[in-house]
Amino acid sequence: MTDRTTGSLRVDGATLHYDVRGRGPLLLLIPGGTGGSAAFDGIADALAAEYTVASYDPRGMSRSALDDPEAEQHVSEHADDAFRLLELLSPGAPARVFGASSGAIAALDLLTTYPGRVERLVAHEPPVVEVLPDADEQRALVTRVRDTFRARGLVPAMAVFAAGTRKDGAVPEPQPEIRLPPQAAARAEQTVANLPYFVGRIVPAFMSYAPDVTTLATLPDRLVLAGGRDSDGELPHRAVASLAGLLGTELLPFPGGHIGLTTHPAEFGETLRKALSAPVPAR
Q1: Average pLDDT of the chain?
Q2: Phi, psi (rounded to 5 degrees) for 173
Q3: N or C terminus of the chain: which is more exposed, having fewer CB within 10 Å?
């Protein structure tokens, strides 16, 4: 296992906690959903053979506490957090960036706002639903999730969210309880603890984000859009595929589905390694 160091960075409205391992050019990993830095434990060590790998807990998640726990969230703030980390860890040199899900939305805003700081961005299934032909239906979904959360609580809101994001509205069958190793159990417990913040403030803010397609179209050599092989038809995959269509580029297939990072870590990490340095196909 690669040695890692942990640090903290004071930003506007929060204190970010981050982990760094490896040597070489900087690779910033931005987690999505309720994940934090630990979401990348399955791939970071392998990538650290080639890069200085930095991962962090987004503001409001896990160790990165908000000054005001009730503060509304904005994609631009999360993108600025990533920029501040780049300035700290790779001053003056463009860095490679990977973002997953909502983290990929923050990464897209980072790229369009600070294009000179990003050498290559791989964005895996950002749920940029505003680019979809049925964007009005997705806005209604976000409203239902928000209203359900406020009126009935977390579990019913998560059921509405899951039904709206999965293919054909299907909700997975409950799985039998699995006894996890202590480290994995602690990570799962933290993920659950982050759920109210994710549902109440990240989902409404991030799923209303409209990417700057015009600016992204001017950065064809810096952006790789990716989708899971097993998630075709699900809402995040539909959204990133639609964005790829608007930009006239191919969607790079990654192992697994929306959470392939967790279910197929070795294959996912190797695909990411190749995507970070491979030439982007002509558009």
Answers
A1: 91
A2: -70, 145
A3: N
CATH number, position 69: 3.40.50.1820
The pLDDT assigned to 243 comes to 98
Q: Which contiguous run of DSSP H or E holds residue 113?
A: helix 102-113
Cα 211 to its chain centre, rounded Å, is 14
Segment 24-74, tens digit of pLDDT: 999 999 999 998 999 999 999 999 999 999 999 999 999 999 999 999 999
> What are the beta bridge partners of residue 20?
5, 54
Single-letter amino acid code for the residue at 66: L
CB-based contact 47:269 (threshold 8 Å): yes
In a domain, 180, yes or no: no
**pLDDT band, residue 281 (cuts 50/70/90):** low
How big is the chain by its Cα radius of gyration, in Å? 18
In a domain, 162, yes or no: no
Using the CB atoms, write b or e for 32-44: b if 16+ within 10 Å.
Answer: bbbbbbbbbbbbb
With helix as H, strand as E and coil as C, how does 186-252 read?
A: HHHHHHHHHHHHHHHHHHHHHCCCCCCHHHHCCCCCCEEEEEECCCCCCHHHHHHHHHHHHHCCCCE
Residue 196 belongs to a domain: no
Tell me what percent of the chain is helix, strand and coil, each rounded to the nearest 5: 50, 20, 35
* Sign of the four-CA dihedral 168, 208, 78, 49: positive
Distance, in Å, from the CA atom of 106 to the CA atom of 181, rounded to the nearest integer, reads 31
Residue 84 inside a domain? The answer is yes
Predicted confidence (pLDDT) per residue in 163-182, tens digit:
999 876 454 444 344 443 44
Domain range spanning residue 239?
Answer: 4-134+209-277
Q: How far from 24 is each of 19, 27, 47, 49, 121, CA to CA, in Å?
A: 15, 9, 10, 8, 17
End-to-end CA distance of the chain, in Å? 39
